[in-house]
Design goal:
With 312 residues, this protein is α+β, with helices and mostly antiparallel strands. Helix content is 29%, strand content 24%. It contains nine helices and 14 strands. The strands form three sheets. It has a seven-stranded antiparallel β-sheet. Strand 13 and strand 14 (295-299) form a beta hairpin. Helix 5 (183-196) packs antiparallel against helix 7. The longest helix is centred in the first third of the chain and has 27 residues, at 5-31. The model has no long low-confidence stretch (mean pLDDT 87).
């Protein structure tokens, strides 16, 4: 079963929480008898800073979220934060669970405008009365990423675009573009590039008569073919012949069928028509953006199984 980006976030947060909860609880116990004494709290935080992995700042807060220590960094005391009111910060607006440890949602830091998160540990007196919080801030750049990069889902997804465009869709009609006037030849060139010449992804902009290509030999840079290139089969000579990739999800014969279906969707209706589409051989996905500014993402075989009534 494929994991989504939300699943990966959950797994990553679980591992971070397991890493941080015990050392923060231990440090909170050390801070409790020093509560209210700024310099002694600073000394305790400095002494234990290295026990909190990947930490950027350590500090102590009272129950009103006002800072009662300085910010402590790897280099020592960072002045300017004593008595700071943190009650408005995102992590102070989350409910700390009953077990006294919270790993906040990520937020954008004030100091560096970077994605960060905060761990809060409740500090309690000997009789269990809450004294405040031990806070630890983390820059996401410093945190390890232990989970694999998620894969894009293969199920059909529809994303709605600009409501103003959707509301006026029947007041507009398709204007024939230069690509439309020569569409069969442009699509034949794209089929050659995708199946024989090392192009693994293309975005076809029907309305603006251009295509953006990514190649196996140079996947980090794109090439743009304008209408002049898309009407000249000689452009294929620029791209060396290559075997069709064995690990492509889209079978080679299906590329021509996909392009033929895109042609039909471009020409089928004057009001609701295809404006842009993309094909990725390795994702096995086709995207389609229509004149109503709605975009669909679906697997190539699901796309080929849809007929006109589904779209219109």
């Amino acid at each position: 079963m494929q994991s989504s980006w939300k699943d990966n976030i959950y797994q990553q947060r679980e591992q971070l929480a397991l890493m941080l909860r015990e050392p923060l609880a231990t440090l909170a116990e050390q801070c409790a008898p020093l509560w209210g004494r700024r310099n002694e709290l600073n000394t305790a935080l400095i002494a234990s800073f290295e026990t909190i992995p990947h930490c950027t700042y350590l500090y102590c807060l009272d129950t009103d979220a006002r800072q009662i220590s300085d910010n402590i960094t790897k280099q020592g005391v960072l002045p300017g934060h004593f008595a700071r009111d943190r009650s408005h910060r995102p992590y102070m607006k989350e409910a700390v669970p009953v077990w006294g440890f919270l790993l906040s949602d990520a937020y954008i830091s004030l100091a560096k405008s970077r994605p960060s998160l905060t761990a809060l540990q409740i500090v309690r007196s000997q009789n269990g009365h809450p004294l405040g919080y031990l806070g630890a801030d983390f820059d996401l750049r410093d945190l390890p990423v232990s989970s694999a990069l998620y894969e894009e889902p293969e199920h059909w997804r529809q994303v709605k675009g600009d409501p103003s465009i959707r509301g006026n869709v029947f007041q507009q009609c398709r204007v024939e573009s230069p690509m439309d006037q020569n569409l069969d030849q442009a699509l034949a060139i794209l089929e050659e590039l995708l199946t024989q010449r090392g192009v693994f992804q293309c975005q076809i902009h029907f309305s603006s008569s251009q295509a953006t290509l990514w190649t196996l030999d140079d996947p980090y840079r794109y090439r743009i073919l304008d209408q002049e290139a898309l009407s000249d089969p000689d452009i294929c000579l620029v791209y060396p012949p290559q075997p069709y990739p064995e690990d492509a999800v889209i079978p080679q014969p299906e590329v021509a069928r996909i392009l033929a279906s895109l042609r039909s969707l471009r020409m089928a209706d004057e009001n609701i028509y295809l404006r842009m589409s993309s094909i990725n051989l390795f994702n096995g996905m086709v995207s389609l953006t229509f004149s109503c500014d709605g975009t669909h993402y679906m697997r190539y075989d699901e796309f080929l199984g849809k007929d006109g009534p589904f779209w219109f």
